[in-house]
């Protein structure tokens, strides 16, 4: 008899774990987890769910983009720029991100570059490579040349100016 109870208890625990996992997957980046940090890590996974069930994640991206473009906080701008290293092929996201980087760089290149300096080296590299491989490199190149003599921005400016 005790053996059957143990088997039943284990079975119940397995089922509860599976149900909890399914709930978490369906509610990824929702409620108290609806943050830019969550989206950075799970962008592809939440995209399809968001298309089906509303626009909460798009709202998070919209707020983050607005804060980045306003540049009241260099840290929040840097947090938004870290999206460049999000491995995603979502066309709508990439087009919107391209436009935001372009707007930020043209309207407030100093803010962009200050935020760039707050990024860790892998994020800096990802952002530079993102710009180089997208159709926005020519636009960024024109503005970046104005900062060629500033040693703080040397690596970024050289990488952008040396692309073909």
Number of extended strands: 0
The total count of helices amounts to 9
Cα-atom Rg, whole angstroms? 21 Å
Beta-strand share of residues: under 5%
Give helix and strand order, one letter per element, not per position.
HHHHHHHHH
Shape: elongated
Query: What class do helices, strands and sheet pairing give?
Result: mainly alpha
Low-confidence blocks of residues: 18-25
* Largest sheet data: none
Distance between the termini: 75 Å
Mean pLDDT: 78
**What percent of the residues sit in helical stretches (DSSP H or I)?**
over 70%
Structure description:
By secondary structure, this protein is mainly alpha-helical. The protein is built from nine helices and no strands. The protein starts with a helix and ends with a helix.
What characteristics describe this protein?
9 helices, mainly alpha, 74% helix, elongated, 164 residues
Note the topology.
Elements: H1 2-26, H2 36-53, H3 56-70, H4 74-81, H5 91-107, H6 109-118, H7 121-133, H8 137-144, H9 154-161
Helix pairs in contact: 2-3, 3-4, 4-6, 5-6, 8-9
């Amino acid at each position: 008899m005790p053996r059957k109870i143990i088997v039943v208890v284990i079975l119940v625990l397995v089922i509860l774990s599976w149900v909890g996992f399914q709930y978490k997957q369906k509610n990824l980046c929702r409620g108290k987890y609806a943050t830019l940090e969550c989206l950075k890590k799970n962008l592809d996974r939440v995209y399809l769910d968001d298309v089906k069930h509303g626009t909460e994640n798009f709202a998070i991206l919209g707020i983050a983009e607005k804060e980045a473009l306003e540049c009241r906080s260099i840290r929040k701008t840097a947090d938004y720029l870290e999206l460049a290293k999000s491995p995603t092929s979502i066309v709508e996201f990439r087009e919107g991100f391209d436009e935001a980087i372009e707007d930020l760089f043209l309207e407030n290149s100093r803010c962009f570059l200050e935020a760039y300096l707050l990024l860790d080296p892998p994020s800096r590299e990802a952002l530079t490579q993102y710009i180089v491989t997208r159709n926005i490199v020519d636009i960024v190149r024109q503005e970046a040349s104005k900062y060629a003599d500033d040693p703080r921005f040397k690596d970024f400016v050289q990488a952008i100016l040396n692309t073909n």
